[in-house]
């Protein structure tokens, strides 16, 4: 029975660390629904996230002209994530259209897993995006049916005019947002004795949602930032400009990385009304003592290369993404650089790069292997080698997400 649950969890959320998987297996509540029964109703408030172990469910929503069919989901898919994350009533009624086996995850368990695994957060965000896209398609279809009643010549003319204006506005918005995003990325790094930095940022579209920076704090300290905003395009670029401004302002007030993370988180909750969040790795590097303290707010685990022993370590301090959910959880950890040691911070555009043909992902293991092999290089050489290796692996496949690297090396 546990093996069936394990398979359903991994289908829905991806491969999880064994400890987290065991916690989930023990925490889920197994339920069964007969065909024709209702799993949950629109408007109800319940702190439960559902994973479909077997069977199919349908979603309906009350509209002006009665119940509207929204879509179907089956084995390995999930639902109820918005109600749990937003603590809001159910947005739709869920019907079992065949005999179903469901796994129920309480919001406290889901929150713990989200805190420790950014890959789960990304899987859930992809599910939300798919649901929104499906709902949008239904709405568009309804509008098209209504518009068929109008005179086609007049309708086409108005549509063409509206589309022209929309494209012109979008073009201008993209130009402005691109300038905003380019403006927040540093063109140079602080002159830091005994350390060198290198970075590469390549957006998947015209505008990226990633941020990197090395912030001058005082004569002995710099702040290292790597962040990735949910979403893309104009909204993400503006959101990242706000995130960078908050880190710049807080870094010069606090040296504690946990204090800075909490301050930025609370300010984002106040200034942002959009359903957005940001994953962050933030470190305070004292280049005089070569010591570094850091937090990881839901971001991909940076890779640390120890030159003396030629070993790789993942910086996996637990923490949750910033700017969306209350009661931020982050834990500060520390390390000391030795000569030749390298810290590689990256966005998921590196590890999630896919190969044309079999759609295999580049993955963290490949990244660690190339860092282990090329860690003796300069920071810029290593950055160039990693990006070239990712591009060669993709073999012409479209870049799925923003690709960003920030490399710190002790001299």
Core attributes:
single chain; Phosphatase 2c, domain 1; 18 strands; alpha+beta; 411 residues; five-stranded antiparallel sheet; Jelly Rolls
What does this structure look like?
The chain is of the alpha+beta class. The strands form four sheets. Strands 9-18-17-14-15 form a five-stranded antiparallel sheet. The protein has a five-stranded antiparallel sheet with strand order 10-11-12-13-16, with helices on one face. The chain has helices at about 1-15, 20-25, 80-85, 105-115, 120-145, 150-185, 235-250, 255-270, 350, 365-375, 380-395, and strands at about 30-35, 40, 50-55, 55-65, 65-75, 80, 95, 100-105, 195-200, 210-215, 220-230, 280-285, 290-295, 305, 310-315, 335, 340-345, 405-410. The model has no long low-confidence stretch (mean pLDDT about 85). The longest helix is centred in the middle third of the chain and has 33 residues, at about 150-185. The chain folds into two domains: about 1-140, Jelly Rolls; about 180-410, Phosphatase 2c, domain 1 (4-Layer Sandwich).
